[in-house]
Amino acid sequence: MLMYEFVGLFMFVCGLIMFSMKRKHLLLMLLSLEFVVLSVYYLMFFYLSQVGNEYFFSMVFLTFSVCEGVLGLSILVSLIRTHGNDYFQSFNVLW
After folding, report:
1. Is the CB of residue 2 less than 8 Å from the CB of residue 64?
2. Is the distance from CB of 47 to CB of 61 less than 8 angstroms?
3. Domain annotation covers residue 93
4. Using CA atoms, how far apart are residues 66 and 72, in angstroms rounded to an integer?
5. Could you read off the pLDDT of 14-36 as tens digits, one per residue?
6. Residue 88 belongs to a domain
7. Exposure winner among 16, 23, 57, 93, fewest CB in 10 A?
8. What is the C-alpha separation between 38 and 46, in angstroms, rounded?
């Protein structure tokens, strides 16, 4: 069972490393954030299965993570429509 926790932590760390390495493209940053959310869900589901089989909070977490993903994709679509690409260096972030 300890191996499953290490797998979840390894997934989380890999997602954070990819988030910091792919900081130039918004789409790759969103994908790495979704991977981090997936690893947190994996760890939470594993923990809840060990404690008391109450999975209601995991459904709430999935609902919020789907809403977060939809908001990120809508920002990406509006950014591509206005600027033509998803590079952070092609437009001024402060304006």
Report:
1. no
2. no
3. no
4. 10
5. 999 999 998 788 888 889 999 99
6. no
7. 93
8. 12
Angstrom distance (rounded) from CA 52 to CA 3? 20
Q: Domain range spanning residue 45?
A: 2-83
Place of tokens 């972030």: 93
Query: Going by C-beta distance under 8 Å and a sequence separation of 6 or more, which residues neighbour residue 55?
Result: 45, 48
> Rounded to the nearest 5°, which phi and psi values hold at 70?
-65, -40
Q: What are 38-72's pLDDT values in tens digits?
A: 999 999 888 888 887 778 888 888 899 999 999 98
With 0-12 CB in 10 A as exposed, 13-18 as middle and 19+ as buried, what is 63? Answer: exposed
Residue 60's closest CA among 45, 50, 39, 74?
Answer: 45
Within-domain flag for 52 = yes
For 5, list phi and psi in degrees, rounded to 5. Answer: -65, -40
CATH label of the domain that carries residue 62: 1.10.287.3510
Number of domains in the chain: 1
